[in-house]
Amino acid sequence: MDSWPIGVFASVDAGLGVAWDVISELKLPTIQLHAPHSEKRNRQAAESFRTQLDDMQVRCTAVFGGFEGESYADIPTVVKTVGLVPAESRESRLKEMFEIADFSRWLGCDTVALHLGFIPHEASAAGYEEIVQVTQQLCDHCGSHDQYLHLETGQETAGGLLEFIDQVGRDNLKINFDPANMILYGTGEPIDALEQVGAHVRSVHCKDGTWSDQPGETWGAEVPLGQGDVGMERYLRTLQQIGYTGPLTIEREIPQDPARQRAEIGQAIELLTELRSKILG
Ligand code: MG
Questions:
Q1: How close is the Cα of 206 to the center of ligand 1, in Å?
Q2: Domain boundaries, position 249
Q3: I need a labelling partner for 161 at 20 to 30 A (CA). Which of 141, 178, 185, 188 fits?
Q4: pLDDT tens digit string along 99-111?
């Protein structure tokens, strides 16, 4: 496959991606898929999705896990509710991630991804070791089926993420780099971060955002691609510099307004197509 096939983040019945029936309209070669609700995570459903994707000539490059009870309402709520970090739901969510990894395998996809949640910044912090252990369990489950686990960026600094990957110590643990999240969460300048973690990046999101006036305390704003503070040309040039050739997956997290989401994704495809030919020639 050519370098940087363009893709879109899509949903069946959960998550913030474009609706399933929009995929064929966009005529893109790849998608990432938000895992559907549990009743559709069986083998028969996965194989049916796989057939539909084959018919559309679309390849699913990652399946993202997400959980009931997660809320991105504000940053403190993310800390309490998202991913495998909250201790009280960790075991049941780990089981769900195993199911999602199996669903992904039946779909023919070698990559599972998630927002792990807010990992404490210091390796010595209370609870850190347990988060390392649950990540190792998930990596090992994925590894037993030759799958990778990608961590979505945003909630950690580049340095914190590198330290965590080192502590987990599993070769199939990689990064899904989302430059806008670094801005939205106020965790660091995304291009510097990408240069630091580049060796671990195996998938990316193309999403844009503007900084909050209180970074790390309140949200920045997600905006249409090219209109925020990421700097798309510099972002793509940095991806080239780190040797990344995988999909450019567009995320526009406004499923509440599908017409606008569809239109802005169309503009994002144009922008990425233009930048890709400018940079790759
Ligand atoms: Mg993202």
A1: 8
A2: 6-280
A3: 141
A4: 999 999 999 999 9
In this structure, is residue 1 part of a structural domain? no
At 225-259, the pLDDT tens digits run 999 999 999 999 999 999 999 999 999 999 889 99
- Say how far apart CA 21 and CA 9 lie, in whole Å: 13
Q: Strand 208-210 to strand 221-223: parallel, antiparallel, or no bridges (unpaired)?
A: antiparallel
CATH number, domain with residue 51: 3.20.20.150
Closest CA to 115 of 187, 166, 49: 187
* Count of structural domains, the chain: 1
102 in a structural domain? yes
How many residues make up the chain in this entry?
Answer: 281
Cα–Cα distance, 110 to 73 (Å, whole number): 31
Q: What pLDDT sits at residue 152?
A: 96
Give 205 Cα–ligand 1 centroid separation in angstroms.
Answer: 5
**162 CA from centroid of ligand 1 (Å):** 18
CB 223 within 8 A of CB 210: yes
Is residue 204 included in any domain, yes or no?
yes
Please tell me the distance between residue 279's alpha carbon and the centre of ligand 1 in angstroms. Answer: 23
